[in-house]
Design brief:
By secondary structure, the chain is of the alpha/beta class. The chain is built from 20 helices and 14 strands. Strands 4-5-10-6-9 form a five-stranded mixed sheet, sandwiched between helices. Strands 1-2-3 form a three-stranded antiparallel sheet, covered by helices on one side. A two-stranded antiparallel ribbon has the order 7-8. β11 and β12 form a beta hairpin. GO terms for molecular function: phosphatidylinositol-3-phosphate phosphatase activity.
């Protein structure tokens, strides 16, 4: 059904709303099939708030899942983002009716019925999440599977006999059944234009008590997923984050033990996706948790910034621990760049990603806290490690768009006489700028395309700029001064100048085609401050609601560094570098 983009009354705001959300999250496990359970009214407020925040920037439709009939562990209102409600020219081609039909046909293909679900819309591309592929055990009987896989704590579907995977008749039946259900899964992936599948599992198949209870695309024997670009990027499961907690919430120096018997999925990434990242992927087993998470995030950002129109799927096993970690980091990183959710304040984007990406998609915070597996806390405390420009999607776009022979500084260094002369400009080169929504409704100039007349023209231009006392540099201070109206329109028009012998397209802003835009570009310092605001708000609210479990003091009597962070978060300490 179609959902209105606006008009939903906010269900609380700021610190209070986040505190209420965290309290509810830490007390009860969300299940759509329960209709919110005893706390139905609180859950409804959370759901309504999410829809209101999505509606600030997007047109969307909703797939109803009121009683968990689509998936018991997904939101009761599954949001399909269709288009940025502002000036973003990109629009999803997905129709909610057809999507819902494909979902109903394909959901059995994935573990716990957690189907491929689009959750972020970026440049018309769907970033999706799901669980891994279901194995024979789940397809033939959910009772035994659910009991084994979750320790008997999850819901069961039906009684099933003990089936041997080695039975030849069963193997043949497996092939036919997998052809059908995985065929529907592939149709769903293609409909969402997903090309890249990032698998975070450290196993090829999940094994419990000697039984293969799940599978994955990378080991599909029939190679049904061969047409997709498969990336095996093994990342430690939630159990590893108990070590993080036990080390006083310190991720630096914490390295996963890759020698464990069950770890059999090597890192595998197509070379074409790694060439621009300057990362030695052969060293991945020596990375600590910080470096591993940073490098995987860089990879995901690079993929979604590729020139094609293909979407991305991220999944682990059940899709409710490692998957929301990276989905949440992607959402926050793109928001910090001013590329998605551009009207949301730090407290609002924090609420949205905690509520939608974690709570409503079934992260079992109650269980994880009881075991000390604090992957949820790690996600938001980790924001301090991705504030620099090297994690910015804008940097990637700028780097790709620079023409050979020019640097960004040289392009931005414009002679005043050139800025006032359309004819002289078009006779040498033309400048085009691609706009996209920036933070707070401003323009962000992402791409610069320069077509020089040749190496002599480049050299002459550089010499002229270097010798002219009137040369100006587009500095960050100038970027943040004034903003274009939010309703402004950028037009790329064709010049009628007869002196132009090259491409004649250029950007017209005001009276001069090369006038330095007075828009607010999200600089590295802006990105850092935005992410730090989100992290600080999270730490402050988390400390007042859930809190950290104190780690026994070391022999030296040192106090945990994270407790100090909490003290600063609630204003009891001054800030310092952590």
């Amino acid at each position: 059904m179609a959902a209105a983009a606006r008009g939903c009354p906010p269900a609380g705001s700021g610190d209070r709303a986040l505190a209420e959300l965290l309290l509810e999250f830490s007390r009860a496990q969300y299940r759509a099939k329960d209709g919110g359970g005893a706390a139905a009214a609180k859950v409804e407020r959370i759901e309504r708030r999410c829809l209101e925040l999505f509606g600030r920037d997007y047109r969307y439709s909703v797939i109803p899942n009121l009683h968990g009939e689509v998936c018991a562990h997904y939101p009761r209102y599954i949001v399909l983002l269709e288009r940025d409600a502002g000036r973003d020219p990109f629009e999803s081609t997905v129709q909610v009716g057809k999507l819902q039909d494909l979902i109903n046909r394909s959901k059995m293909a994935r573990c716990r019925g957690r189907f491929v679900c689009p959750v972020i819309l970026y440049k018309g591309k769907h970033i999706c999440r799901s669980a891994t592929l279901a194995g024979w055990g789940e397809l033939y009987g959910r009772t035994g599977y659910n009991y084994i896989f979750s320790g008997g704590s999850d819901d069961a579907w039906a009684d099933a006999e003990d089936i041997s995977e080695e039975d030849p008749a069963l193997r043949n039946a497996d092939s036919q059944l997998f052809d059908k259900v995985r065929g529907h899964d592939i149709k769903l992936l293609r409909y969402l234009s997903v090309r890249y599948i990032c698998d975070l599992m450290v196993e090829n198949k999940k094994v419990k008590f000697g039984l293969n209870v799940t599978s994955s695309e990378k080991v599909d024997k029939a190679q049904r997923y061969a047409d997709f670009t498969l990336l095996s990027i093994p990342y430690p499961g939630c159990e590893f984050f108990k070590d993080y907690k036990d080390r006083d919430y310190t991720a630096e120096g914490l390295i996963f033990n890759w020698k464990q018997d069950y770890v059999d999925a090597p890192l595998s990434i197509p070379v074409s996706l790694t060439q621009s990242l300057n990362i030695d992927w052969s060293e991945y087993q020596s990375w600590d948790l910080v470096q591993q998470t940073q490098n995987y995030l860089k990879l995901l950002i690079s993929i979604i910034n590729s020139d094609d129109d293909s979407g991305l799927l991220v999944h682990c096993i059940s899709g409710w621990d490692r998957t929301p970690l990276f989905i949440s980091l992607l959402r926050l990183s793109l928001w910090a760049d001013g590329l998605i959710h551009t009207s949301l304040e730090p407290s609002e984007i924090l609420y949205l990603t905690v509520a939608y990406d974690w709570f409503l998609f079934g992260h079992m915070l109650v269980d994880r806290l009881s075991k000390g597996e604090e992957i949820f806390f790690f996600c938001f405390n980790f924001l301090k490690h991705i504030t620099s420009e090297e994690f910015s999607a804008l940097k990637s776009q700028r780097r790709k768009s620079l023409p050979p022979g020019f640097t960004l500084e040289e392009i931005c260094m414009l002679k005043q006489k050139d800025r006032g002369s359309t004819t002289s400009l078009s006779s040498d080169f033309s400048l085009g700028m691609e706009s996209s929504p920036g933070a707070s409704g401003s323009f962000t100039y992402e791409a610069v395309e320069l077509m020089p007349a040749g190496t002599q023209a480049q050299a002459a231009w550089r010499k002229s700029c270097a010798s002219s006392p009137q040369a100006v540099l587009w500095s960050r201070a100038q970027q943040s001064e004034d903003r274009l109206p939010s309703t402004g329109v950028v037009e790329v028009k064709s010049s009628s100048s007869s002196s132009s012998t090259h491409s004649d397209n250029f950007l017209r802003i005001g009276s001069s085609p090369l006038e330095v835009p007075r828009s607010r570009l999200v600089s590295a310092s802006d990105r850092e401050s935005r992410l730090e605001e989100v992290r600080s708000a999270f730490l402050a609210s988390y400390s007042r609601t859930i809190g950290l479990k104190a780690v026994p003091p070391s022999p030296s009597g040192a106090i945990g560094g994270l407790l100090e962070q909490f003290a600063r978060g609630v204003g009891l300490r001054g800030s310092s570098t952590l």
